């Protein structure tokens, strides 16, 4: 597989997340408040909830239903009730566009 274009960086508002599905893999694409773009698995490991509907907070994405926050860097939950991590995917920015390869995981 290879990296696929998911959106333009400017299409991602700061401190927001967007759900994309690449090759059957649900991914939350996030632009944090500093402007960095991250990609983590979109499904909370505590329940079948889309993380992209949650809240971007500093270094992670918080599930709106259960309150578990997942690290952008490691995918690990930073608090309970979740205890299993979500995958973290490599992000490439090319000419202002965001590319993700769902087969390339940085964690999990």
From TrEMBL:
Residues 4-100 form the Rieske domain. It comes from the Bacteria. GO terms for molecular function: 2 iron, 2 sulfur cluster binding; metal ion binding; monooxygenase activity; oxidoreductase activity, acting on paired donors, with incorporation or reduction of molecular oxygen. InterPro entries: Rieske_2Fe-2S (IPR017941), Rieske_2Fe-2S_sf (IPR036922). The keyword Iron-sulfur applies. Keywords: 2Fe-2S, Iron, Iron-sulfur, Metal-binding. Gene3D superfamilies: Rieske [2Fe-2S] iron-sulphur domain. This is Non-heme iron oxygenase ferredoxin subunit. It comes from Protaetiibacter intestinalis.
């Amino acid at each position: 597989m290879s990296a696929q274009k998911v959106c333009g960086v400017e299409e991602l508002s700061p401190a927001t997340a967007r759900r994309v599905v690449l090759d059957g893999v649900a991914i939350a694409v996030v632009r944090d408040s500093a402007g960095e773009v991250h990609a983590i698995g979109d499904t909370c490991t505590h329940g079948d909830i889309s993380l992209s509907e949650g809240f971007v907070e500093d270094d992670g994405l918080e599930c709106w239903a259960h309150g578990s926050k997942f690290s952008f860097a490691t995918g690990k939950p930073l608090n309970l009730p979740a205890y299993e991590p979500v995958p973290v995917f490599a992000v490439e920015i090319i000419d202002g566009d965001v590319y993700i390869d769902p087969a390339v995981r940085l964690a999990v």
